[in-house]
Amino acid sequence: DAAAHLEAGASKAIISAPPKGEDPVKQIVYGVNHNEYAGEDVISNASCTTNSVTPVAKLLDDEFGIESGLLTTVHAYTGSQALIDSPMSKTRRGRAAAENIVPTSTGAAQATTKILPQLEGKLDGMAMRVPVPNGSITELVVSLAQTPSVPELNDSFRAAADTGPLAGVLGYTDDEVVSTDIIGLPFSTTVDLRSTNQVNDGGLYKILTWYDNEFGFSNRMLDVARFIIKTDS
């Protein structure tokens, strides 16, 4: 469908969702793999959840080595759900969105491994749609090859966000925030440093990272568009 915009006169089309269909479409997560753009006419900005987890996964894998991981996104309800109990192909998504916690699928783990192919077969995940209109959080539980302490892990997030390659994409907070506090943040993902956890000083860790699934994602769409214009000019 995106190609119809090209036929109508647009020079490029950016899909604000994971791509579907038989023709392969490159997924771009700004700050992670945007430099892989090679002049394609149609690209995807991936999903808001993929944008939330991929920068964190890249940092963890680059610095400490991810051996395996599971993610759970606790996500604001979306237009793919019903407002009142209704028949749908995904039965749980047919239950009233504003009244239920809805376990469902997410393609974010698989999309992350497309963007970071070294993680192929190492990540999986699911979603919990919850009764809030905006503001989401991803729980990433990973087994790392190295065993940094929690302060060392949090320092890595701070460094990457403050002056590193993920500045402007990755954020962090030391405050005891809740979902409404992060609405309007421009970052793809904001690590909740107070919630970083490690089991028995071993290699199993839990990271919580917030995202405004509307505004943060929209900012990355603009970043990708600006990058394309600059690259093609």
What order do the helices and strands come in, and which of them pair?
Elements (H helix, E strand, L loop, with lengths): L2 H5 L5 E3 L10 E2 L14 E3 L3 H17 L1 E11 L25 E3 L3 H8 L7 E8 L5 E9 L5 H13 L7 E4 L15 E4 L4 E2 L5 E8 L3 H18 L1
Helix pairs in contact: 2-3
Task: Output mean pLDDT.
Answer: 96
So, the CATH homologous superfamily?
Answer: Dihydrodipicolinate Reductase, domain 2
Mind summarizing the main beta sheet? 8 strands, mixed
Number of DSSP helices? 5
Write the CATH architecture name: 2-Layer Sandwich
* Principal-axes shape call: globular
Order of helices and strands: HEEEHEEHEEHEEEEH
Number of domains: 1
Relative strand content: 15-25%
- Cα end-to-end separation: 26 Å
What is the top-level CATH class? Alpha Beta
Counting helices, strands and paired strands, the structural category is alpha/beta
Low-confidence stretches: none
Compute the number of strand runs. 11
- The level of helicity is 25-40%
Radius of gyration: 18 Å
Provide the CATH topology: Dihydrodipicolinate Reductase, domain 2
